[in-house]
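Hello forum,

I keep getting stuck at the same step: I have a sequence, I want structure tokens, and every attempt I make locally crashes halfway through. Rather than fight my setup again tonight, could one of you with a working pipeline run this one for me? It's a single chain of 262 residues.
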Amino acid sequence: MKIKSTYILAFIILICSISILYWSYENYQSNKIAITLKEVSTKEEKNIEISEELYNPPANKDDSSYQYIDEKFYHISLNEAIKENNETVGWINIPNTKVDYPIVQTANNDYYLDHNFDKTKSNSGWIYLDFRNDLENLNRNTIIYGHNRKDKSMFGSLKDMLNEDYFTNKDNHLIKLVSKTQNTIWQIFSVYTISKEYYYLTTNFLNNESYLKYLNTIQGRSKINFKTSVNENDKVLTLSTCKDNLGHRIVIHAKLLKKETF
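Reply #2:
Ran it on my machine without issues. Output:
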């Protein structure tokens, strides 16, 4: 009986070791792709007019949004990423995190849960835009998904935002997004965890009243008071990732601050 137990234990250790090696290999492959794409996707000079605007500035000059008026846009070319994957629609960068990835989009919200940027099978998945959204013509709520990887790749860095101390650095309040025709800067106004639901994933609203109700709900959920206002004229960016294996989600909401149109 003791010998049999030893064999069982050895088998379990072997399976766990193989799983860890496979997990590490998937992370290595994903990180390699991301690093290579970043290296070749350097800033591209554009010989066209660029129009910049502050989007829906708050009426109250004490609003925290005003400290980001002079914030620099994130410039990166999407050309190389599009060559590698024609489903590339943008690039997301969150300062002081590992989030610095091209964004992909396909006809559903399932494919990139278990496929890498190069479309190989991978539990790492990739960062992807909700199939209902369009980065060139923003909905009231634009949603981006990614896995919460233990090495903080993909959206693994988002768990840091659950700590209030993280936001003592004002640069950590921003998300920068590049699409094919515009650069945008977004300011975080709500951070929370929640059981699996679909309400925060709403992309279209019947009227201003239903949208305001949505904004009040998601802002009221926040663990942190960001001291910024939102109203029916704002555009929202939502980042969603898993918190644990029990179905809980980490959710980040940000509002559009400024944009640069090519």
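The chain has one domain: 39-261. If your local run keeps crashing, start a new thread with the error log.
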